[in-house]
Structures are given as C-alpha cells and as structure tokens.
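Teaching soon. Got one?

===
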Amino acid sequence: MQFQPRWKEALVCTCEQGGFILGMPMGVPSVDFPTEETWQSEAPAWAKPYWASIRDQLARWCESQGLPLHVGPFGHVDRMP
C-alpha cells in the first residue's frame, strides 16, 4: 500500500488493486481507521479481505510519520471516484 496525505483531511491509500480514502484530521494530525465491522460494510470489495494487513501497513506508515493511528468508530472508508 502507498499512503499519500491530501488536502481536506484525507489520506489516499492505493495499491495495484485499487484505492480508497481514509480520514486524516489536521487539527490534531492523526489517521482514523475503521473497525473491522465498519470496514466490511464500507470498503471496496477487493479490499474487504485485507483489513488486518492494511491496518498493519498503515500502522507502520503512521509510526514512520510520527502520526497516531486511531482504530475505532470514527474511522470510515470512502471509495475513490
């Protein structure tokens, strides 16, 4: 996965199979990742089986950027247009 911050408090996540957008609040820089239940209802079909793998990759990226990763009810997935 590749992670790219974008204007308007968004983190664009892409790979060979496609992409999606996560929330990245800038007031207190951090990344919000959904619970597995939310992921299953909001993520693109290709990404649904990879919740744990994507969460782990995102955790490593966040750590390298000095950003907290919050997994919980505030995390949502937006599909790319």
Remarks:
- The chain has a mean pLDDT of 95.
